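Example 3.2
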Amino acid sequence: MENQTVEYKENWKDECLKWVCAFANSQGGVLEIGKNDHGRIVGVNNPEKLLQDIPNKIRNLLGIVCD
C-alpha cells in the first residue's frame, strides 16, 4: 500500500528521481518499480539493466548512494 514512505511506479522514468529526492530529504522510503497504483505487480522490461542504470542515475544526478 502506498503511503509517505512507499511509492509504486509501473515503469522507470527519470521523473521518478523526484521521489528519490523527496525520500532522501525526509525519513527515507521505498520506490517500487513494476507495480501499479494498487500494488499489483506488472513487471518491467529488462530488469537487469534497470538494476544497473537506476543507482547510477541516482548517484550521478543527485549525488546520493542508494540501496
